[in-house]
From TrEMBL:
SMART domains: HTH_LUXR, REC. This is Two component transcriptional regulator, LuxR family. Pfam families: GerE, Response_reg. Residues 4-121 form the Response regulatory domain. PROSITE patterns: HTH_LUXR_1 (PS00622), HTH_LUXR_2 (PS50043), RESPONSE_REGULATORY (PS50110). The modification 4-aspartylphosphate is found at residue 55. Residues 149-214 form the HTH luxR-type domain. InterPro entries: CheY-like_superfamily, NreC/VraR/RcsB-like_REC, Sig_transdc_resp-reg_C-effctor, Sig_transdc_resp-reg_receiver, Tscrpt_reg_LuxR_C, WalR-like. Keywords: DNA-binding, Phosphoprotein, Transcription, Transcription regulation. GO terms for molecular function: DNA binding. It comes from the Bacteria. GO terms for biological process: phosphorelay signal transduction system; regulation of DNA-templated transcription.
């Protein structure tokens, strides 16, 4: 299977560097390059890439706005990954809330970039669990708006809520299975049902919903 990738960054040199790294891999293909969010959105609709790497800061329509539009189109199954210069970027959580599956540092080693692109296609998390929890703990602690229950949360069974809380703690399916004394296949089924009920694409989005709904509390 060839993974089709779209690159969106307003710096041509950055795009060239990313293309060189990705196309050195036999299973990765760069199908398009965009210099802003408007072009990225159009190319996602026209080219249907598997993964879109979007710079957070771009002129016109920025990466966050583009991510929100891309992930909210039902027919568009492109996994969106944000590119940033600093891991403490204040817009990272906003990007996750917009539907991004994770974020990558532009300074990361080439092998990590390649691994992350493949992970995005398989639906795996692109954020270390500890980093995701730190970001969301900080976001929720500073949020001035009250927590609201997202659609689908009230449809979760007690077991599914329990599984979601463990996912939010960063546990893998195998670790959840051990903690709850369940088969790993059973846990995988529970996770799939949680994602479906919450209407989200991956585990990262499910964790964001868990925090915003108050199902998981900062530091908990």
């Amino acid at each position: 299977m060839t993974v089709r990738v779209l690159l969106a960054d307003d710096e041509a040199l950055v795009r060239a560097g990313l293309r060189m790294i990705l196309e050195a891999e036999a299973d990765l293909e760069v199908v398009g390059e965009a210099s802003d969010g408007v072009d990225a959105l159009r190319m996602c609709r026209d080219l249907h890439p598997d993964v879109a790497l979007l710079d957070i800061r771009m002129p016109g329509l920025d990466g966050i706005q583009a991510a929100r539009r891309i992930t909210r189109e039902p027919e568009n199954r492109t996994a969106v990954v944000m590119l940033t210069t600093f891991d403490a970027d204040e817009h990272v959580v906003e990007a996750l809330r917009a539907g991004a599956s994770g974020f990558l540092l532009k300074s990361m080693p080439r092998d990590q970039l390649v691994t992350a692109v493949r992970a995005a296609v398989s639906g795996d998390s692109l954020l270390a669990p500890t980093l995701l929890r730190r970001l969301l703990d900080d976001f929720v602690s500073r949020a001035r708006t009250p927590l609201t229950t997202a659609p689908g949360v009230d449809q979760l069974t007690p077991r599914e809520e329990e599984v979601l809380r463990l996912v939010a703690r960063g546990l893998s399916n195998a670790e959840i299975a051990a903690a709850l004394v369940l088969g790993e296949g059973t846990v995988k089924t529970h996770v799939a049902r949680v994602l479906a009920k919450l209407g989200v694409r991956d585990r990262v989005q499910a964790v964001v919903v868990a925090y915003e709904s108050g199902l998981v509390r900062p530091g908990g």
